[in-house]
Amino acid sequence: MLIGDVARRSGVSARMLRHYDALGLVRPTGRSHAGYREYSSKDIQRIFHIESLRSLGLSLREVRRALEDPSFTPAELVADLIRQTRERIAAETELLTRLRRIDAVEPSGWEDVFQIVALLQALGSKSAGKRQSAALSSVDDVPLPVEALVEAALSESDPNVAGALRWALAQSGEESLALLAEGLGSPAAEVRARAVQSIAEMPNDGATTLLREALTTPDLVVRRHAALALGVRGVADAVPTLIDMVVEGTNDVDAADALSALATRPASAKRIATKLADRLAEDGVEPPARRRLTQALADIPGPTASKALTDLSHDEDREVALTATYILGLRAAR
């Protein structure tokens, strides 16, 4: 079969077939009387083998080795191709992400693009100082893409950098909330904790809604962060978790402060004081927990808290009685 016929039937151009010939990959078995290349069925089969291997991403040098080197096994070849392909996909994905993030900021000119790229590179730096500087610079004329900020906040372990990233997110408005909500559903506990901490520092109503939802999560750390933030925002749903925190001795001072912030109205103060007194009366509450509950009553105004403290001043636990008596003295002096 002449080269033109082979090209039409195989889909490989005559020019490429001549290139294969020059490289010694496929040498035509014979020549016609006029000197034209003639390919046998075996030659054509080899062409198809070459094209099959090229479709897997092999270079012509690798194709030659695969066809001619008996020690070059398919398993070795395929494993190497998988590794190369994964590396290429990772690189292309990283590039695509960077381009999307630049596009999201809608740069007005190349100078904006250069600044965004520099900030993104700093945000991914191994230096905590550079990452922190990038976060603090992200609210300037050319801000960092919100997606990049959220990703950085959810992966940052340095407390100073994490604080700067949360501050930057708080300046971004509600745009980041959907991404942070995804973080709350992460299988990684540390990511969930970072997500709720970031949401807690955002002052908008959308953040409050997410924090309310976080109160129902089975993740205890997330619930605690959400309760503390909601207490400051005046959301009474946080009261049960805050009282649990006082009992457990986990951020109990912050929890007591949040309960105090929630007790600004008489009705709220009465409910909180009643719940604290009820926990104090429960069987099985350890003495240290009872003392913390008594201390939590100190900043709860109103007669319900005062009555509970009066009862506690006669408690069998001497430390609880002394604490209640001391608090009552302070309340009387106000």
Automatic annotation (TrEMBL):
SMART domains from the UniProt entry: EZ_HEAT (SM00567), HTH_MERR (SM00422)
UniProt-listed PROSITE patterns: HTH_MERR_1, HTH_MERR_2
GO molecular function, one term: DNA-binding transcription factor activity
A Pfam family assignment: MerR_1
InterPro entries in the cross-refs: ARM-like, ARM-type_fold, DNA-bd_dom_put_sf, MerR-type_HTH_dom, MerR_fam, PBS_lyase_HEAT
KW DNA repair (keyword) present: no
Keyword list, A-Z: DNA-binding
Domain HTH merR-type: 1-69
Transmembrane segments: none
Classification via PANTHER family: HTH MERR-TYPE DOMAIN-CONTAINING PROTEIN, REDOX-CYCLING DRUG-SENSING TRANSCRIPTIONAL ACTIVATOR SOXR
UniProt name for this protein: DNA-binding transcriptional MerR regulator
Species of the source: Nonomuraea endophytica
